[in-house]
Amino acid sequence: MAEMAEPDRVTAPAIDTRETIIASDDLGMVFAAGSVVALEEVNFEIKQGDFISLIGPSGCGKSTLLRIVAGLLTPTGGTLSVKGDQVTGPRPDIGMMFQKPTLLPWKSVMENVMLPKTLGGRVTKADKEEAVALLQLVGLEGFEFSFPGQLSGGMQQRVALARLLNTGAEILLLDEPFGALDEFTRERLNVELLRIQREVKATILFVTHNIQEAVFLADEVFVMTPRPGRLTEIVNVDLRRPREIAMTKNPDFNQRVFEVRDILGGTI
Amino acid sequence: MSTQGTPSSSDTTDAQIGFPHWAQHLLVFTIFIAIWEMSVQFNWVSALILPSPFAVVVAWWDLAISRGIIWGHFFTTLTEVLVGFIVGASFGIGVAILSAINMTFRRLVSPYMVALQVTPRIAIAPIIVAWLGFGMEPKMAIAAIICFFPMFINALTGLMQVDHESLEMFESMRATKWQIFRHLQLPGALPVIMAGFKTGISLALIGAIVGEFVSASEGIGVLIQRFSFQLLLPEAFASLIMLTAMGLLLYGLATFADRHIVFWRHADLVNKISRRMRAKNAGLTGIKPHA
Lengths: 268, 291
Known about the structure:
By secondary structure, chain A is α/β, with parallel strands linked by helices. Chain A has helices at about 1-5, 60-70, 110-115, 115-120, 125-135, 155-165, 185-200, 210-215, 250-265; strands spanning about 20-30, 35-45, 50-55, 75-80, 85, 95, 170-175, 205-210, 220-225, 230-235.
């Protein structure tokens, strides 16, 4: 209870000396020979170690933006740079995770987690031990030699997260990773995701259309609006970390949720 | 163009009250045989047209056991089917792989694939016999041609149905085209390819028999034709039963291969493999009990 009484706001914000890791400059994306404007004039900077939630209604271009950062799509206008270099294709320091676990059902959990190493060349004993450690990190100790078909949806996403971490990427792009899971599993995984981010010190870009989830996880919520896809506003979530589920009862938390909802309100 | 057969899935069980399944099957079979026997015994049907089950068994005993002359024909046909199937399936899957990885190739071969599909492939049998003579080769060739198409179309369908997000996942890991094919596309296509096996192997049997009908001196098809011409219908039926047995054997082989190659679709096999892997790697993780 003593913990609850403490103010949840971070009081004196220190001067931010961390370097910018992702920068978007007038980013634009036009599909189908000019008929669909998916993104227009998107500008932002993301600092190393930040957790960014990307929220907006369907068709606002949030998945497109994520795929441009991943190097899977080439923007039709503006530039997107990571660590000062313009992104021209998939990079080893950027990894991605999807709403579907995209596990290979014919490979064991271990083999799935080791996929990035398998693609990179020979798998060593050290790689195996690392995979075991990563599975421990995501709470799947003892399921190393299960197959995806034997696991629940939440557990499958944990495997996908372990596989993502095994790429060694420091920028993690998550496209509605827990969107298909039930509310309880989603809440638990959100808390664990924050713990894992603290441990591996990753920069995370998290796409969601759940406002509570977006605010709960993020340092900053990027609010996007559709037709054309724009980054309308950035909501700063300067709430104390580490965060627990109890924080969702906090007025400061709810104020941020309302703020995001108000911005989206005009568009939905 | 649709795929042949359905990919195998987890086995389902249906609870049944009363007789066990095998007893029900036995009962139906006995009634069927009894009616057949009676219809001949009481002359409802002439024995010249429909031999009695008893006469068929006697004929089979004579052909398979007393004189044992049927086995040479049996293995001739079986060899034709197996070689034909392996050749046809290899070509079918091979062309499908080339079509899946190269758009230009797919565009160029697709009219011929459609032509092959709409032509009754059995009609090519006399031409093949004219080319390859009267031995086993033309039958193998006909079997191969007949089972080529379902193998091709199933393999192509399987290879083309790659999950988009899985593909993006591989791309984000900077996988090469070959790695994507080897780790995602090919294993992902296996359930559909293996479903095609079951259809393909039955078609190969049809192909071999058609080849034997056109012209041959050996094989079960030859026996059936010869016995029928001589109105030795019990012997013809006995030969037909050997073909049914061969068909079942081949289908069983295909099902066995399917189960073990597409093991992840079968809960019992997955559990077994998972347990085995866990035991083998106990040193890596420490032994932990988990279902």
